[in-house]
Amino acid sequence: MEPVSADAVKARLATQAIETPSWAYGNSGTRFKVFAQQGVPRTVEEKIDDAAQVHAFTGVAPSVALHIPWDTVEDYGKLADYAASAGIRLGTVNSNVFQDDDYRLGSVTNPDPRIRRKAVAHLLDCVDVLDATGSRDLKLWFSDGTNYPGQDDIRARQDRLAEALATVYTRLGDDQRMLLEYKLFEPAFYTMDVPDWGTSYAHCLELGPKARVCVDTGHHAPGTNIEFIVAFLLRAGKLGAFDFNSRFYADDDLMVGAADPFQLFRILHEVVRGGGYEPSAGVAFMLDQCHNIEPKIPGQIRSVCNVQEATAKALLVDTAALAGAQRSGDVIAANDVLMDAYHTDVRPMLAELRAERGLDPDPLAAYRRSGYAERIVAERIGGSQAGWGA
Ligand code: LRH
Ligand code: MN
Ligand code: MN
C-alpha cells in the first residue's frame, strides 16, 4: 500500500483556515476571578491587531470572530477595512443574549413576549452586522434553560425557540448561515433549551439549508464520543462549525489539544473522512477559548498549531489500508492504521511547510522574539475584559 506523501499532506494543510475569537485577547477568568494581564487590547481594533499576529506567525488564522455587544462599533464596514489592512478579515458574528438582567428566565425562550422580542431584535441586529462586514456566519448560543423542575414549560420553550430561530432564519441573506451551538448545562442546571447536538440538529433541519450545528468541544458530558457526532452531522450535511477548546471537566475553554490530543485527532479524522475538510463542505474551524492564566497571543498560537498538528495526522491516515483492514474485518490492523498516523511526529513536516511559505518554522519562538508582547505592554494601559465579567 502507498503511504500518504508528505507533499500531498502539505498541499492540503496550506489551505487550512482556523478562526480565533476576539474574546480570547481580552482579560478573562472564571466567575471567581478575572485576571488582568498587561498589554491586553483596549479596543476592538487592538483585538484585531492581536489576532493578526497569530495569523502572521502561523499563516493559518486569517480571520477573527466578533462577539456582539463585546465588540460593538459604530461602523462595521470600517472595522472590516481595518481588519483587511491588518492582514486578516472579520469572521463569524457571535450573538449575545445572556448578559442582560432581562434574561434571568431566558432570552428567546423567556415566558415574557416583551423579552423574547428584545432578544430576537438583538439577533436581527447581528444579521445587520453580517451585512456590513460581509461575514457569512451568525453563531447562536443560548444560555436559556431552567433550574428547577416545574419552573417553566419545557415544551412551550421549544416552541418559542423555534419561532425565534425561524424569524432570524427568514432574515438571512442568500450567502449567510446560522450556526446553532448547544451546551449540556450552565448557566442553567436543570434543563438547557439547546442542550445537545440532537436538539440543535432537529431545529436546523426544520429551518432549512442555511442552518447548521456548531460543535463546541467543551460542551458535552464527560465521555461523550464527539467524533461520532461529527461523523453523523457531516453525513447529514449539517456540520457548520467547530468551537475548538480543551476540557478536563466541563466548559473549561483551555488551549486546544491540551487535555486530549488523541480526541482532537479522532475528531479531525472524522472531519477528513466525511469530506468536512474540503472548503466546499463549509465547515468553519474556530477556536473558542478564554485563556485565564497563560498569555493571550501565545495561547492562541499554541491552539492553532495544535489544530494544525492534529489535522496533519488526520491527513496522513492511509485510507486505502484502513478501508482494506475494515473490509477484511481485521480489527487490529485497522486500529494500527489510525494509530500509525496518530503517532507520526508531524512537527518537522509543519516546520518545513512554514519555511516553504516564508514563515518561521517555530511560530511561538518567532512571536516571542518579535518584541510585540513588550510593545503592547508599554503602549496599552488599562486593557479591557473579554466580556464575561463585563
Ligand atoms: C458559551 C460559548 C459560546 C459563547 C462563548 C463566549 O459557553 O461557548 O460560544 O458565545 O462561549
Ligand atoms: Mn462556544
Ligand atoms: Mn463554551
UniProtKB/TrEMBL annotation:
Keywords: Isomerase, Manganese, Metal-binding
Domain of life according to the entry: Bacteria
Signal peptide location: none
GO terms assigned for molecular function: isomerase activity
Gene3D superfamilies, A to Z: Divalent-metal-dependent TIM barrel enzymes
PANTHER family: L-RHAMNOSE ISOMERASE
Protein name, entry field: L-rhamnose isomerase
Organism: Amycolatopsis minnesotensis
Name of the gene encoding the protein in the UniProt record: rhaI
